[in-house]
Amino acid sequence: MTDKSKESPDASHPRETPCYTQWISVAESTPETLVKVLVIFVNETGRKWTSIAMHVPDNEVPADYFMSEEWFEMIGDGPCEYAPGGWYEWTYEHEQYMPLSNVVAWMPLPPIGNV
User: Which range marks the domain in which residue 44 is found?
Assistant: First the structure.
């Protein structure tokens, strides 16, 4: 006989867990604006890599959300009102976003949970 007190309250109804193993082609869809996702991108040598990034449509997100005036000067663009549309990779060491090109697929990040 099993000890019912150790089962979760709804053990008879398994929780539906989103599938985090299905890559979604960027040709098919992109994630919601400003939502971090896992991405596959192809670098300049043709190798595929994974990273964490978010997608931004044109003319929707203020430029200063991602970039400082110094960053615009560094890449040679003048200040602009909105961030250019595209993918932005999250860099943890510098805690900032950088433009990311050649993204081919994405999937939601799994929840961290109680680690």
Answer: 24-108
